[in-house]
Write a structure and sequence with these properties.
Elements lengths: L1 H21 L14 H8 L14 H12 L4 H5 L23 H6 L2 H10 L16 H13 L4
Helix pairs in contact: 2-6, 3-7, 6-7
The chain binds heme C.
């Protein structure tokens, strides 16, 4: 009986996972805000001394952000090398990781809103809080500058 139960649990897990893979990567409304309304105003106003706007950050800051994105930040595992949201660990997630090549997303988000999600995560999704567990505040601002630079169209 116990064995049967274990086999059932395993089979369910496999089915669940493969169902997730079959629909790998669909994002949930990337244009809708993720910061809860009560905190959004404050989040939008958050600033750093590193740059005025992340999309205008210096090449040096962007290069440092890339190192964090592909290194200790582990962002690349889900968001992918090109930023399209197609990293190996992201393939089993629903909703799928944000596609940073989508310029429409970037237009809709203030730097501070991205900061808020990296700090607090996006509840109910694979985007968990990575600051301060993986990266500090300064590294967070740098990685945001890199993600902005991935906008393609
Ligand atoms: C385990 C997989 C995973 C990792 C690792 C990960 N992300 Fe995400 N990320 C996601 C998913 C899934 C979403 C989409 C969440 C949603 O739709 O609300 C997301 C969304 C985002 C968003 C969009 C938030 C918004 O306002 O819509 C930002 C910014 C972001 N991630 C930054 C990062 C950064 C920076 C790192 C590395 C420090 C990182 N992510 C690492 C899975 C991941």
């Amino acid at each position: 009986m116990k064995l049967f139960l274990r086999a059932t649990v395993l089979l369910t897990a496999v089915l669940f996972l493969s169902a997730g893979m079959a629909v790998a990567g669909p994002e949930k409304d990337p244009l809708k805000p993720r910061v809860p309304a009560a905190e959004r105003g404050k989040a939008k106003k958050m600033k750093t001394d590193l740059y005025k706007k992340a999309k205008k950050a210096s090449p040096e800051i962007i290069a440092e952000g890339k190192k964090i994105y592909e290194g200790k930040g582990t962002c690349v595992n889900c968001h992918g090398k090109s930023g399209a949201g197609d990293g190996p660990a992201g393939a089993v997630l629903t909703p799928g990781p944000r596609n940073f090549t989508n310029c429409k997303f970037h237009k809709k988000r203030k730097d501070g809103e991205m900061f808020w999600v990296i700090k607090n995560g996006s509840p109910g999704t694979g985007m968990v809080s990575l600051n301060p567990s993986a990266i500090n505040d300064e590294e967070t601002w740098k990685v945001i500058a890199y993600e902005r630079s991935l906008c393609k169209k």
